[in-house]
Amino acid sequence: MPSQLVVTDFTLDTGVQELLVKAEEEGITTAFARAKEQEPHCKFGLTGVCCRRCLQGPCRITFNGNKGARRGVCGATADQIVARNLLSLIVEGTTPHVEHAREVLHTLLETAEGKAPYEIKGQEKLLSLAKKLGLTVDGLELNQIAHEVALKALQDFRQQSGVSHWLRLRAQGKTVETWEKLNLLPANAHLEIANAINKAAMGCESDPVSLLLEIMKMGLVEGYDGLHLSTDLQDVLFGTPRLVKTQYRMGVIKEDYVNIAVHGHIPMVSEKVLEWSRRLNDEAKALGAEGINVVGICCSANELLMRQGVSVATNYASQELAIITGALEVMVADAQCIMPGLAQVAACYHTELVSTLPNIKLEGASHVDWTPEEADKMGEDIVRRALARYPERDRVKVRIPSGTVEAYAGFSVEQIVELLSALNKEDPLLPLLDAIAQGDILGVVAIVGCTNPKVKQDWANTEVAKELMRNNVLVVASGCSAHSLGKNGLLSPEGLQYCGEKLANVLRAVGQANGLPALPPALHMGSCVDNSRIDDLLVALADRLGVAVRDLPVAGSSPENHSPKALSIGTFFIAQGVDVHIGVNAPITGSPLVEQALTANKGEFPVTTDELFGGKLIYEADPIRAARTLIDRIIQKRRALGLVCPEA
Ligand code: NFS
Ligand code: SF4
User: Fold this and answer.
1) Ligand 2 centroid to 595 CA: how many Å?
2) What string of DSSP letters covers 513-562?
């Protein structure tokens, strides 16, 4: 453990800073300190030229001028090694979302069959999906329709040929043609994942261009059978998000309450915990507490925030610090972004760490199985564990950083359209498109993805956002980046102070037409699977304008990316023709071919994603420079569309 922790270098979040000091006093290490211990990072790993794909290796390309190994034992070059490694990383980003979607579809199926204790709260979404899937709905009960929709989704995991139903459902026709010509249309998510692993395996595919195209195909699997499928079916089960108001920061953990943190991604777990916390609230009062308080971390936070207004304690990098408040009775984890380090921290307190998914177990945690049928049993069991832990809380060890920040969320596309229809009932998207056309809104950028202990937490996410806002770019947000913005007041009308005058006026006009002082400068659109909502928004705007998504003055940015999921989601957006900025580089710089293909402008290299799809990868660690690069690209796209452009 490093003796001198400079906590202000680790995070912008003062509550997290306070807890890092407490952790040090108590001799507990966290990800922030461990990240320092890993420095300097191995260059072979950072640049992607280390291969561990067979037992002749590990091999590393050490070629430097005339010295060192140019090829691995099997003869693999740096281009081949980097492309295979990137493909396998993207598979590890895509697979958790595909499995997430599959869990949701099975829950819907069993709910429709009356076997699982969930309701179908999103009737409108269900009917619209069924119609778009070409199903007959007349004369059918809701459950029967849900059953048919779930079976269609299941086909995307079963069929041996054809095209993913969810791709056909959600993609823009123009873009599908581009993908079809390149033979990128996925048939079945599991089959495509198996194909990709097969290609990356030792002695299989060695053509780096073909490997890159496979990476783009994985992006489509991610986009449609991961993100879109998850969001659509979650909206059917739990309802489509609507505008909600909430609170951010560690101060949402309340000393007088039994506190449960939900962490991970799967709303079937977190929704049930929340439901049971309400049902058993009086039992907490019998223990002398004020009640049961559920708070969120990471994307479980986003799911409960978007639909239930539940408050958010913190985001990825500081997940362990929530336990260091000493006031969490239980932390419930399901899947994805769960640090194994949580167990060591929980062991220093009365906090019980509980894993829930049958195939995701955590060392040092207790386990309560979630299955769709047993969901109520799980919810009750977990809340009862929290009640039982409450009397064991050591009051001396409790220190909750004070202060919370107000934020708005719940900006589904449906909600955005409804807000806009207060300005134009017949053609709700028109006011937004007019504002874009006239330059009152320069463009739209999605700030998405993670926090990463390599970067000062929340700093890059908020700096990129503020620089964009200053330049009249409308920001939409998701994932842990949205939490960074929320903690720092950018999800509230207060954040208007950071906006250029033109953007601020638009946000005031839409807000006031809906009885609010203004819309916040960043619209929180949900969890990482809800990046599908951002895609839906882009498709709706492009359709209304009669252009392809690749032509729109829009971009994506993940300034503090850590997860392979951020890369696979980014790949999906590049395939759509959207530029994607990352603030922490992907391991590609060891291969000139892979790096150029992903980052060069069209015409600058023989094969580029910019040429094939209209979008490219932008790596820039400096947030202000990153924002300016995105703005330049947005202005180029505006110019191509013949829209008003700011003076150079
Ligand atoms: Ni997204 Fe959500 Fe957060 Fe990054 Fe992890 S929780 S799925 S991967 S760290 S945003
Ligand atoms: Fe080395 Fe080739 Fe084996 Fe990779 S696949 S470890 S480069 S021999």
Assistant:
1) 21
2) HTTSS---SEEE--SSTTHHHHHHHHHHHHHHHTS-GGGSSEEEEETT--
> pTM score, two decimals?
0.97
State the Cα–Cα distance between residues 644 and 648, nearest whole angstrom.
12
Domains of the chain: 78-238 (1.20.1270.30), 250-397 (3.40.50.2030), 409-641 (3.40.50.2030)
**Listed residue (389, 331, 328, 391) closest to 365, CA to CA:** 331
Amino acid at 88: S
Report the separation in Å between the CA atom of 437 and the middle of ligand 1, taken as the mean of its atom positions. 33
| Model pLDDT, residue 1 | 44
Q: Which residue from 316, 483, 567, 584 has its CB within 8 A of the most atoms of ligand 1, so it is best to mutate? A: 316
Residue 69 Cβ contacting ligand 2 at under 6 Å: no
Ligand 2 pocket check: which of 59, 199, 205 to mutate, most ligand atoms within 8 Å of Cβ? 59
Token digits of residue 554: 């829009």
Ligand 2 centroid, distance to 618 Cα (angstroms)? 29
Confidence (pLDDT) at 5: 64
Q: Is residue 14 exposed (0-12), middle (13-18) or buried (19+ Cβ within 10 Å)?
A: middle
Smallest CA-to-CA distance from 98 within 240, 273, 236, 233 is with: 233
Which residues are near ligand 1 (CB < 6 Å)? 265, 298-299, 316, 336-337, 449-450, 479-480, 528, 563, 565-566
- Cβ atoms of 491 and 466 closer than 8 Å: no
Would you state the pLDDT for residue 647? 74
Distance CA 513, CA 518 (A): 9
Helix (H, G, I), strand (E, B) or coil at 246: strand
CA distance 275 to 266: 15
Q: How far does CA 607 lie from the centroid of its chain?
A: 29
Pocket of ligand 2 contains residue 76 by CB under 6 Å: yes
| 553 vs 35: CA distance, rounded Å | 37
- Mean pLDDT per 10-residue segment, the chain (648 residues): 71 98 97 96 96 97 88 98 98 98 98 98 97 95 97 97 97 96 98 98 98 98 98 98 98 98 98 98 98 98 98 98 98 98 98 98 98 98 98 98 98 98 97 97 98 98 98 98 98 97 98 97 98 98 96 98 98 98 98 98 97 98 98 97 85
Write b or e for each residue in 305-328: b if 16 or more Cβ atoms lie within 10 A of its Cβ, otherwise e.
bbbbbbbbbbbbbbbbbbbbbbbb
Give pLDDT, residue 648.
Answer: 60
Distances (CA, A) of 351 to 47, 296, 387, 401, 460: 39, 15, 11, 18, 32
